[in-house]
């Protein structure tokens, strides 16, 4: 934040201007839409890949891991192993994206993800080659994890930097719409296959089809991304950035932004614990722990995801009007208070109550998802934004988010309690609530400049800007700054 004189004097220079959708030319609006669609398409493919693995866990446990007593745990470990490598991918691809551009890295990541996922569809089974089968699966999951370490962060940053500041919540929610679209496509495809060919048909080889379909889908996303360009926000920052290497970017991030890294890690624990428990582990939990028919479990989750897709974009637009923090705090409090009751509803065996339990998780999860692309990139200044998002997000995901299914399944086996996921989500809710409480409000703030968005709130108040939500005021200067601003003339906004 720029320096303030005593008594709330005007800043020495004006903060970066706020971009508004109404001020964009027709060409600029087309560029925004094109950028959003390109980022969303690749993101949908990534989460389609993760979704089909989650929905096919039981079949993979039989085909790749031999159907032994612990084969489901091994299959879940195969899901979790990619998350162990994601921080490495984030540490390499994030700083690289801050140096050479977001678009180049995003082309590379979607190519790598699509090819590695399609290769799972041609793996030899346990009966063919024994332990070589899971070894090859683990290798492909590691490649997926490395590329995913840069994919999601890059797509979110790319979209956030292209969106106008006053509509970043609306446009950013399309990325998570793509996430839900990918998972819904996975759920619909696998559930339909289960219904058409049955469990025996899936075991006979139909489990391969969803993985193979990622190759043509990935080619479509790749073609879309090849024609995209980096944002003016990034280009402006690159012109003034004196760093000469990706390593220097990573070093400066860790030494200069440690608090922001802890903040993004805290909220990521909540987001991805909820995300992976509800959207990937839940089919396995309902099937193996609660003895629910796999098709029924799939259909219930598809219904919840489709409803989430309907409401996510309006919710994103709502955060542009009321701010990100109120919605995020409500979601974190909801997971903290209602996760255990929701799991108890799932354990009743009554379909209506089970749907209600899933709906509770879905409501609070979509309140988190609609905020991600607008909120998390705004935790860092432009020159380290990709690196900060990628590193912090992926470290937290690898620790508690991605392995959530494996951890919960192991704890259920050890304790015999089907309430384990509820307790796990409650802890994640508390961690997320603490992190979110420390956030600046960034709705309507500019992502340009060399400061963390929101840190220059008092500078904006001093020049008469009206801000959405809580004003960042660490030294209780707000009243003095407002008085000075009101005494110098009517409020005005930078256009």
Protein described:
InterPro entries: H+-coupled_symporters (IPR051084), MFS (IPR011701), MFS_dom (IPR020846), MFS_trans_sf (IPR036259), Sugar_transporter_CS (IPR005829). Residues 1-24 are annotated as: Disordered. The chain has 495 residues and is mostly helical. The chain folds into two domains: 21-437, Growth Hormone, Chain: A; 457-487, no CATH class. It contains 20 helices and no strands. It has helices at residues 26-55, 57-63, 71-100, 102-120, 126-129, 132-162, 168-203, 209-212, 214-226, 232-240, 246-256, 258-289, 294-322, 324-346, 351-375, 385-401, 404-415, 420-437, 457-462, 478-487. The longest helix has 36 residues, at 168-203. The two termini are 21 Å apart.
- Average pLDDT: 88
- The CATH topology of the largest domain comes to Growth Hormone, Chain: A
Give a count of the beta strands, DSSP E runs of length 2 or more. Answer: 0
N-end to C-end Cα span:
21 Å
What is the count of helical runs?
Answer: 20
Q: Could you give the order of the helices and strands?
A: HHHHHHHHHHHHHHHHHHHH
Assign the CATH superfamily of the largest domain: MFS general substrate transporter like domains
Number of domains: 2
Main sheet? none
CATH class of the largest domain: Mainly Alpha
Give the helix level as a range of percent.
over 70%
Can you tell me the CATH architecture of the largest domain?
Answer: Up-down Bundle
Secondary-structure content class: mainly alpha
Tell me, what's the shape? globular
Query: What is the radius of gyration computed over CA atoms, rounded to a whole number of angstroms?
Result: 23 Å
Relative strand content: under 5%
Unreliable residue runs: 1-8, 489-495
């Amino acid at each position: 934040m720029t320096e303030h004189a005593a008594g709330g004097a005007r800043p020495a220079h004006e903060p970066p201007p706020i971009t508004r959708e109404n001020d964009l030319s027709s060409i600029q609006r087309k560029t925004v839409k094109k950028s959003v669609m390109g980022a969303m398409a690749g993101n949908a493919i990534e989460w389609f890949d993760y979704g089909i693995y989650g929905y096919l866990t039981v079949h993979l446990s039989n085909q790749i891991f031999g159907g032994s007593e612990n084969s489901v745990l091994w299959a879940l470990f195969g899901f979790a192993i990619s998350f162990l490598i994601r921080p490495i991918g984030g540490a390499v691809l994030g700083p690289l994206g801050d140096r050479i551009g977001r678009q180049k890295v995003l082309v590379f990541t979607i190519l790598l993800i699509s090819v590695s996922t399609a290769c799972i569809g041609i793996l030899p089974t346990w009966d063919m080659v024994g332990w070589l089968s899971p070894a090859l699966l683990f290798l492909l999951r590691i490649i997926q994890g490395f590329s995913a370490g840069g994919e999601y962060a890059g797509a979110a940053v790319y979209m956030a930097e292209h969106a106008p500041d006053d509509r970043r919540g609306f446009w950013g929610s399309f990325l998570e719409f793509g996430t839900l679209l990918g998972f819904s496509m996975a759920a619909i495809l696998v559930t339909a296959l289960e219904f058409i060919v049955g469990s025996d048909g899936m075991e006979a080889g139909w489990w391969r089809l969803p993985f193979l379909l990622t190759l043509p889908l990935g080619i479509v996303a790749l073609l879309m991304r090849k024609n995209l360009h980096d944002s003016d926000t990034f280009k402006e920052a690159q012109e003034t950035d004196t760093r000469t290497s990706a390593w220097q970017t990573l070093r400066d991030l860790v030494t200069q932004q440690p608090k922001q890294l802890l903040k993004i890690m805290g909220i990521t624990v909540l987001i991805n614990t909820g995300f992976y428990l509800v959207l990937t582990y839940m089919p396995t939990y309902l099937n193996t722990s609660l003895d629910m028919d796999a098709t029924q479990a799939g259909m219930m989750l598809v219904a919840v995801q489709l409803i989430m897709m309907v409401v996510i974009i309006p919710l994103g637009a709502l955060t542009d009007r009321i701010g990100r923090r109120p919605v995020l705090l409500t979601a974190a409090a909801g997971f903290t208070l209602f996760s255990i009751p929701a799991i108890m509803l799932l354990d009743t065996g009554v379909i209506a109550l089970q749907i209600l339990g899933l709906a509770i998780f879905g409501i609070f999860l979509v309140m988190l998802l609609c905020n991600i692309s607008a909120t998390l990139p705004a935790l860092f200044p432009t020159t380290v934004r990709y690196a900060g998002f990628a590193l912090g997000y992926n470290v937290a995901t690898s620790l508690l988010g991605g392995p959530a299914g494996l951890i919960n399944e192991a704890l259920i086996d050890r304790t015999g309690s089907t309430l384990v996921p509820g307790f796990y989500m409650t802890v994640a809710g508390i961690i997320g609530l603490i992190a979110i409480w420390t956030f600046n409000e960034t709705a309507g703030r500019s992502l340009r400049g060399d400061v963390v968005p929101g840190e220059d709130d008092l500078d904006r108040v001093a020049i008469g800007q009206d801000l959405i939500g809580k004003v960042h005021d660490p030294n209780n200067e707000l009243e003095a700054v407002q008085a000075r601003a009101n005494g110098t003339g009517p409020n005005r906004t930078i256009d």
